[in-house]
């Protein structure tokens, strides 16, 4: 059994390949990080939003969500003593949430969902995270982060402007580029987490899992990397069609002369 790119998925695949090629080119161009910087901040918002969503879904409260100038982030949650499974889910939800969102964008591209609707929906997500967890909630405990609000507002305005004013081809390419950037940044962040787990005792999500379970942080880094590739492979399968291996057809019987 093998897989080929579905005929109707080829335009989307070409757009994704073009977005990936542009991303690689920008990787080697001096100062090109200024182009991808907003996308890195976007992924950080999604990562921290994963922590916040997991906290809310497990019945816990979010104290603050902040994004820093260096694209790092921090989500502070209030979990009752003994909330073992809540802590597991919340610590895992950052990296898994980021790669899942990237995979969701890949799926939306494949399903030909209107690009402007995807951009507007992404803007609503960032606006909600910024307003609720980055502004309103932190005001109650004086942990307000001005950069988080400014960055979230800027990303929201940029996405809404693209949704309203970009032409259809430009909007479609922006969604493809956003999907590629989400996936690449999520994977690069996991790579950095792996390096930190090997070389340092930095306070990371993997370190939190190690403190909670007694299992070394490098295990959790590898575990999340494996899960991420599984999620990514499932998203990419929707671009392919399955072709069964050809089977040997039955040969017709030949009439043989009767021997008398």
Describe the protein's architecture and organization.
- There is one protein chain.
- With 260 residues, this protein is mainly alpha-helical.
- The protein has one domain (2-243).
- Helix content is 68%, strand content 8%.
- It contains eight helices and four strands, in the order βααββααααααβ.
- It has helices at residues 10-28, 33-57, 84-110, 115-139, 146-165, 168-199, 205-213, 217-237; strands spanning 2-5, 61-67, 73-78, 240-243.
- The strands form two sheets. It has a two-stranded antiparallel ribbon. Strands 2-3 form a two-stranded antiparallel ribbon.
- Strand 2 and strand 3 form a beta hairpin.
- Helix 3 (84-110) packs parallel to helix 8, helix 4 (115-139) packs across helix 6 (168-199) and helix 6 runs antiparallel to helix 8.
- 37% of the residues are buried.
In short:
The longest helix has 32 residues, at 168-199. 68% of the residues lie in helices and 8% in strands.
Can you lay out the helices and strands and say which pair or pack?
Layout: E1 2-5, H1 10-28, H2 33-57, E2 61-67, E3 73-78, H3 84-110, H4 115-139, H5 146-165, H6 168-199, H7 205-213, H8 217-237, E4 240-243
Antiparallel strand pairs: 1-4, 2-3
Helix pairs in contact: 1-6, 2-3, 2-4, 2-6, 3-6, 3-7, 3-8, 4-5, 4-6, 6-8, 7-8
């Amino acid at each position: 059994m093998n897989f080929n790119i579905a005929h109707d998925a080829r335009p989307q695949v070409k757009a994704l390949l073009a977005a990936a090629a542009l991303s690689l080119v920008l990787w080697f161009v001096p100062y090109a990080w200024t182009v991808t910087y907003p996308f890195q901040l976007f992924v950080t918002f999604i990562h921290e939003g994963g922590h916040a969503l997991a906290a809310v879904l497990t019945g816990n409260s979010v104290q603050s969500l902040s994004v820093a100038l260096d694209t790092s982030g921090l989500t502070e949650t209030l979990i009752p003593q003994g909330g073992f499974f809540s802590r597991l889910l919340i610590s895992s939800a950052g990296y898994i949430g980021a790669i899942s969102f990237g995979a969701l964008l890949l799926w939306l591209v494949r399903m030909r969902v209107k690009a402007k609707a995807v951009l507007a929906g992404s803007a609503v997500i960032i606006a909600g995270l910024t307003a609720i967890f980055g502004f309103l909630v932190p005001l109650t405990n004086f942990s307000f982060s001005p950069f988080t609000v400014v960055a979230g507002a800027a990303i929201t305005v940029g996405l809404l402007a693209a949704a309203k004013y970009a032409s259809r081809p430009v909007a479609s390419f922006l969604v493809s580029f956003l999907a590629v950037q989400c996936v690449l940044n999520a994977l690069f962040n996991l790579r950095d987490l792996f390096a930190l787990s090997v070389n340092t005792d930095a306070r990371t999500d993997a370190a939190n899992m190690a403190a909670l379970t007694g299992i070394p942080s490098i295990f959790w880094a590898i575990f999340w990397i494996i899960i991420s590739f599984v999620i990514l492979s499932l998203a990419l399968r929707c671009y392919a069609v399955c072709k069964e291996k050809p089977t040997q057809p039955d040969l017709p019987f030949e009439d043989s002369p009767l021997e008398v």
